[in-house]
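Researcher: Re-running this chain for the archive, since the previous output was lost when a drive failed. Same request as before.
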Amino acid sequence: MWVEGDLSMSLSDKDIASAIEKGELRIVPRGFRLNPAGVDLRIDRDVRLKPKQQVLVASMERVELSNRIVGFLHLRSSLAREGLIASLALVDPGFRGQLTVSLYNSGDSAVNLAKGERFIQLSLLRLGKPAIHKYAGRYQNSTGVVASRRQEKRSHTPKIMESVIQGTRG
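Model: Regenerated structure tokens:
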């Protein structure tokens, strides 16, 4: 017997509007485009990508997901047809902040994006059961473009190891 809420599912425009109304999803400021199966997010600034150039950009919108919703980012197909490639990630349940995206122009011509232009789509899925652990990573509450924080954790290890070796740390 099927019980509502037991299955994960991709959210339709109607489901997304309902999730916003219930507070399970928040996207601010308004101005994003609701599509049949996702939300188009806008770029935060003017960008000109020369051929073979990579740049980090952010969404204008701040996204907040409940522990019942997970997001997937997709580059708009019209931009891919111009040679853009994007490094896109999963948006974990509980994430709050602007989304940073790496864009790379693999084409032979420059690609221009105007501030406020739609550039990525956020597809949303409802989890079969709420996540026990919400996102609490290094990018929580991101504002604007956030460079990789991968090395931040590692940079302390040599200092800790050095102090242990020298006997200056317990």
